[in-house]
Amino acid sequence: MGLINLVFAVTQLARIESLNLDLSWMAFLKSSASSAETNGPTFVFALFFIYQLYKGNKWLCALNLVCSVIFFKRIALIAMMVCILIFLFRKYMSKERAFAPLCGANLLVIICLLNTLYVFGTVLFVNGFFADMIRSTGVSVGELTMGRNTLYKYVVKDFLNSDIFQFLFGHGTASCISLLNRHGIHDDLHNDVLKILYEYGAVIFLLFFYFLYRNANTWYRLSLSVMVNVFFLSDNTLIYASVIITFFLVSHENLGSQRLMPDSIN
């Protein structure tokens, strides 16, 4: 796996013709920090970063971190920060009995609840609930979301007008694209969480996250599941074959055998 990681990094870096980096906070908010910004590679480097972090390979871990910054995707970097926190606090949380109720079936309930709350947050967002807060940072809503707020608005509005069957079982495969096309937008939704809910309904939405976290019984596997879950919040990573293949490859590695909770607690 280390060799695959290294070869992937070398081939991606070799494609860069010129590089301009702006690591300012404003560039981060506007997602304009790197001239080499691209979609798939950053997510792949983020997944390799978690793999190398738990494997203890500091050099490849650093390489993946640098490449993630160079190919820059905000949501990928945010996912990495979340998983670094999980990595740093995993030993403490494993020892504390207070965290025991957060494991097993309860973890699945919490994850589904959090993703559902995110959907509710998106509904509030497209209705301008956070607009003043966002503008106080010095950027507009459109700049922060790179226009995604308009895409979300159409999908949220149509979903809220769904009948009970559509709410439970969705509007059908590719219905997001069809809806956006009717509004003159020829782009993907850039939000896999919302897309799954709209196209396949609440039943598949909940089952999707059940299967995503079903085997997350170690801190390593939980970190991987959390990482791709964060990807899904504001991008369409499910259509990136390289990301999905990498996720399955690193998921099947037997790393970080430390369970979420010791057997004596479980």
Describe the structure.
The structure is a single chain. With 266 residues, the chain is mainly alpha-helical. The chain has 14 helices and no strands.
Our Rg estimate from Cα atoms comes to 19 Å
Tally of extended strands?
A: 0
Mean pLDDT: 90
Largest sheet: none
| General form | globular
Q: Assembly type of the shown chains?
A: single chain
Distance between the termini: 32 Å
Binned strand content: under 5%
Low-confidence residue ranges: none
Q: What is the H/E order?
A: HHHHHHHHHHHHHH
- Enumerate how many helices there are, as a single number: 14
Relative helix content: 55-70%
Structural class: mainly alpha
Notable traits:
single chain
Topology at a glance:
Layout: H1 2-14, H2 25-29, H3 40-55, H4 58-71, H5 74-95, H6 105-126, H7 131-135, H8 141-145, H9 148-160, H10 164-169, H11 175-182, H12 192-213, H13 219-234, H14 241-251
Compact overview of the structure:
The chain has helices spanning 2-14, 25-29, 40-55, 58-71, 74-95, 105-126, 131-135, 141-145, 148-160, 164-169, 175-182, 192-213, 219-234, 241-251. With 266 residues, the protein is an all-alpha fold.
